[in-house]
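Morning - zinc ion inputs below, output right after.
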Amino acid sequence: MTLLLGAHCIDTGGIPMAARRAGNGGMRALQIFSAIPKFYNDKVSVKPDRLARFVEALDAAGIAPAHVIVHAAYVLNCATPDAEKWERAAAGLAKEFERSTALGVGGVCFHPGAATDGDREAAIARVSEAMRRALAVVPASHTRLLIENTAGAGTTVGRTPAEIGAMLDGIPAAVRPRTGYGLDTCHLFASGYDLAGSRAALTAVLDAFQAATGEPPAFFHLNDSEGALGSNRDRHVRVGDGQIGPAAFGWLLQDPRAQDVPLILETPQAHPDIAEDDDTPDAWDVASIARLQALAAETSRDG
Ligand SMILES: [Zn+2]
Ligand SMILES: [Zn+2]
């Protein structure tokens, strides 16, 4: 049983530099973008030389490709009722999946999007449809297409176990193992799941997602929350420094479901404007990982 702690490392200088920063920080997992996340990137492919440099950098960093997650572009709304926008989002998602598969990573996570017309059921069906399309066009590999739970702002879908379960229920059994989901602690807390109440409360949240989907999460995003419980605010702060607080992260890391899956920090960076050729790890990420390891080793924090 291993804690695969890592971070979404800055890719200034390219994704091989993100891998080098992660390796130099002693990280066991890594998250990256496969293209500029504010664009659809529905025409962007991974060039062979870029792939080779990334694979080489991961190898030197001692990070298994299976422990790398790609985060899809934020602009993709695969839940939208607007047919034109949906086509573009579905094409963007398929391309994210194609790039992630080419990079050989363990999974690509995406935010399912928003039911802007208020019809959540139809929106959930459209997310499944976009996933089915991506699965149909990208050849089978060990790279998985993973739904990330949302903070529940506005009409966003994918907040509850039932909604994520319904999206995955829309995937044919033959390709269902190529899909899954992951949980972001800030999004859980902001959408009303009280992870900080007690160890039992946190365990019950994980149980509910597992019961609705038939499987444990494929990754966790370890972010504390600036916003209050149920605030629907997606504002990440460093672990232990927000409204969730340190104890809940200790409980989570002691759960068997947090073992052997990527545990990714998506929290503010000490040096967001790092130079292209600077491969030092971010000091705040390194400190947060040390803090998480200490919390995981504590045995007396039963709340
Ligand atoms: Zn995300
Ligand atoms: Zn996240």
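Note: Residues 4-297 form a domain with the TIM Barrel fold (CATH 3.20.20.150).

O.
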